[in-house]
Design goal:
CATH class of the largest domain in chain A: Mainly Beta
Number of strands of chain A: 12
Strand content of chain A: 25-35%
Radius of gyration of chain B: 16 Å
Strand content of chain B: under 5%
Low-confidence stretches of chain B: none
Helix content of chain A: 25-40%
Number of domains of chain B: 1
Distance between the termini of chain B: 26 Å
CATH architecture of the largest domain in chain A: Beta Barrel
Distance between the termini of chain A: 53 Å
CATH topology of the largest domain in chain A: Thrombin, subunit H
Largest interface: A-B, 40 and 36 residues
Mean pLDDT of chain A: 83
Radius of gyration of chain A: 23 Å
Order of helices and strands of chain A: HHHHHEEEEEEEEEEEEH
Oligomer: heterodimer
CATH superfamily of the largest domain in chain A: Rod shape-determining protein MreC, domain 1
Number of helices of chain B: 8
Shape of chain B: globular
Helix content of chain B: 55-70%
């Protein structure tokens, strides 16, 4: 016993090093799998607060671009509204079941954004207090951004699509060929769409949007357009290089989507899997 | 509390804030970021006890991790360079270190740069290996390590010259 204690005292620096190194390795490995990076994230009171302060300072610098984006979005929405076949004069009251009340939107400001790492995160200013939870989708007016991973009372971290941890269900706009959207970690402008059948009529310039198969994003959120594509080694599927509509390096304002039917869909899928 | 302790605490807070708020957003040429916060580890007073030093390095790394949402990669890299600092000191400063009377602002720029280079390269290699976490992307790891190291070494040297007391 005496010898063991002596050993510990003699090597206490080395043992402390091993302990702390092991601990940080544990955190690292946890952070490399989705849903598990609970401990170390910037959605806490401290870093969230600091990011909030600095965001308050920097916010005014890109007000002009924000306004431009809002005007552009308004124009798009107006085009859609005025071209709808719905005659608003004759419908006396809008029936919510008719509209399909499946998705709830919340807006948020981005405090912090990264795009050079292997797994990139955004920090936003909405959290549990605004009933934001894990697995909510995050988009901008131009297209997809990511998925909420961690929430605290006032803040949340969003796992960007520029991450090797997630793949999002996506499809070609003109046909229904689905595939999954992944990132190769190289450029913040491009993501890759894999598992598209080789019989799909892919052409450069085609639009890619989210497919309806995930319970996170509604069908039809824009992602990007086809830059180039190639058959993968097996020769059965295409791997498509997709140029994102969003400039991931410059994201100011986002919308968070809550799928109100997500729970029901998941339960149903779990039942079918059993 | 003597002035060295206060200086160390100030340096810790300032370097973490500088890293988290400014230098993580540099993204020079798309992906090159400097990490000069490890100046805290490089310039930590030598005569202090090593247990505290290693623990503080861990905290430093973890604070940066909180800002970058990166799990424990900075903490792991920081703990490692803190643990292997004595041999590096001995290698870069030779006999001065043996006398235990080292004062970082009295060392000439040349050997200080050698010292920074070794520490920064080891730190960045561990950092990017853990960040990419994929052995098949070894070229990417080495590329990131090389370019970020150059950037960090230059910044470290400049910062340490800028903020050292006048030599006389």
């Amino acid at each position: 016993m005496q010898q063991i204690i002596n050993f510990v005292i003699r090597n206490k620096t080395f043992l402390l090093f091993l302990l702390l190194f092991g601990l940080s390795l544990f955190f690292t490995i946890q952070s490399h799998s989705y849903h598990k990076s609970k401990f170390i994230n910037s959605a806490n009171f401290f870093t969230g607060g600091i990011y909030k302060t600095t965001h308050g300072i920097g916010q005014y610098l890109n007000l002009k671009e924000e306004n431009q984006a809002l005007i552009e979005e308004n124009r798009k929405l107006r085009t859609i509204v005025f071209n709808l076949d719905l005659d608003t004069l004759r419908v006396s009251k809008i029936d919510s079941t008719l509209l399909g009340d499946h998705f709830r939107f919340t807006d948020a400001d981005v405090f912090k954004n990264s795009y050079t790492l292997t797994n990139n995160y955004l920090t936003i200013n909405k959290g549990k207090k605004d009933s934001i939870q894990q697995d909510f989708g995050v988009i901008t007016s131009k297209g997809i951004v990511g998925i909420v991973e961690n929430t605290s009372k006032n803040y949340a971290t969003v796992l960007s699509i520029l991450s090797k941890k997630i793949s999002v269900n996506a499809q070609l706009k003109k046909t229904n060929n689905i595939g999954s959207l992944v990132w190769d970690g190289k450029s913040s402008q491009f993501v890759q769409l894999t598992d598209i059948s080789k019989f799909a009529p892919v052409a450069v310039g085609d639009t890619i949007m989210t497919g309806g198969q995930s319970a996170i994003f509604p069908k039809g959120i824009l992602i990007g357009k086809v830059e180039d594509f190639s058959l993968d080694i097996g020769g059965d599927t295409y791997t498509i290089n997709v140029r994102l509509f969003n400039d991931m390096t410059n994201i100011g304002h986002v919308y968070i989507i809550e799928n109100l039917n997500a729970k029901e869909i998941k339960t149903l899928q779990n039942q079918s899997n059993e | 509390m003597n002035s060295t302790t206060i200086y160390s605490i100030l340096r810790f807070v300032l370097l973490v804030l500088l890293q988290g708020l400014v230098l993580n957003n540099v993204n020079f040429l798309g992906y090159i970021n400097p990490y000069p916060y490890i100046l805290f580890i490089a310039l930590f007073p030598i005569n202090n006890n090593r247990t505290l030093f290693i623990f503080l390095s861990f905290l430093l790394g973890l604070s940066v991790d909180f800002f970058t949402d990166s799990g424990g990669i900075h903490a792991a890299a920081c703990v490692t360079i803190a643990y292997i600092r004595p041999p590096i000191l001995k290698f870069s400063f030779g006999t001065i270190y043996d006398n235990q009377t080292i004062k970082f602002n009295q060392i000439e720029v040349g050997s200080r740069m050698v010292y920074f280079s070794i520490i920064v390269t080891i730190h960045h290699l561990i950092l990017f290996s853990l960040e990419v976490f994929n052995i098949s992307d070894i070229i990417l790891i080495l590329k990131k390590t090389l370019f970020s190291s150059i950037f960090t070494i230059i910044l470290c040297t400049l910062l340490s010259i800028l903020f050292s007391p006048k030599r006389k």
